[in-house]
Amino acid sequence: MRLPNPHRFGTLLALAILLAMTTTGYITICDVFLFGEPEDGPTLFATVEAGETAVDVTGSSDGFFYRFSLCSPVPQGVYPVIRRDGTSFGSPVQVDIVTSTNTPPGFYTIDYNEGDIGFFSDYFAVGQLELTVEQPTSGITVCMFVGGKGEFVVVNEPATLYACCSTGPKDDPIVQYRWWPSYNGNPSSSPTYTTGECIISHTYTTTGTKTARLVLRTESGEEAEGTVTVQVVEGR
Q: What is the tens place of the pLDDT at every residue in 92-138?
């Protein structure tokens, strides 16, 4: 039987301390070279309209301790979101790059750090993200996000349905938000919420993969819609 590696447990302890410090905001992954000299990470590429999200720019990982950060000065409204389909070891991890309707269109080279640690291998790399932000092609920009506790949307706990980053033409503002938190694919189905507010709360009562749908309506009656995938998990 393979005996535990004392060095590995020491590294795991150091990582636990690091994660606690990053969670509280004292440091970020960009501030720490935990494993010595980092590897050269691959160059990542993403093209997205302002206000939209570039999905899975890193390729899926399965690291429970995986972390990703954009490290150099980044454009306004650009940030990474780590998505997991569960809280267990081996659950897939993806990184999306979110932009805002206020993000200036252009080409950006942004440094990133990513890292992970396991019982038999460590990984820490520094690379560059080549991000192209394009001018929105529509007068209505649908920007939406469903968030929960930390990185997870947890069953039977309130989740936030957010669309305040959506915009309409200056002379035709958005006046209505229709939400389907668990969209069944039928465009004729009735929305769960119809509101003039751009942020509301919803509680999912079952776990699993959900599709949230949002339809925006402007003062003149113009409409645009968007969807986002939501992973609802058990609480810890």
A: 788 999 998 778 899 999 999 988 876 666 778 899 999 999 987 66
Strand order in the sheet with 158-162: 145-147, 158-162, 199-203
Q: Are residues 165 and 199 in contact, defined by beta-carbon separation less than 8 angstroms?
A: no
Q: Which two tokens stand for residue 142?
A: 């649908």
Closest alpha carbon to 130 in 74, 199, 171: 74
Region at 56 (left for phi over 0; alpha for psi -120 to 50; beta for the rest)? left
Q: Are 182 and 191 within 8 A, CB to CB? A: no
Residue 86 CA neighbour count, 13 Å, CB half = 8
Cα angle for residues 195, 198, 204 (degrees, 5° grid): 75
Answer for the pair 119, 90: CB distance below 8 angstroms, yes or no: no
H/E run at residue 24: helix 6-24
How far apart CA 155 and CA 84 sit, in angstroms, is 14
